[in-house]
């Protein structure tokens, strides 16, 4: 993902200390003890232990009164993928898609709920260090930032995937976790452009986003077409197969 410059410049020695084993407790006092965090049945076991509200039980919110079912239905139909990780780096919730066959941009499964951050991130390349960087940045409000925008280069300007991370605070301003919102923005941008008569184009004079643009083909209609691939196609056209007229690649 494309990190903002201020995030790239963070001190690795500091953010790598983030405890992704979730060995501590939430400052809000909401950590459920006595249950293995990585137990695939954590949700049911933890809910039973704390006698959690469910179904038609009402939940009084700061600006509304809804049943647990109503909250679930609303969040299932909310645009984008939402997740919540607490300040102890424990993955506690995501808005499970209403369609069980829906393909998620950032795939999560019910059995992962309750897992540590270490368990839900693959230990390959720099995945875990980069995740620790984001968490630590928001935990400490690095440079005054309380959110992180990370566009994902897909090689196609018809698919504008964004990962947005937001610091969550209690009423006293204490850090209590992060919610992540993942969404392909292109359908929204496309609708906006069609409705207002505007157009999405590449700004050749822009001083930022060069890495993202270099992997994207502004003329791509579908798929993961890239400028590199287009250049390769041009080379093929310049060198026709003399023996058959049909190059094999």
UniProtKB/TrEMBL annotation:
Pfam families: PAS_10. Residues 230-249 have a biased composition (Basic and acidic residues). Residues 209-249 are annotated as: Disordered. Gene3D superfamilies: PAS domain. This is Oxidoreductase. It comes from Lactobacillus xujianguonis.
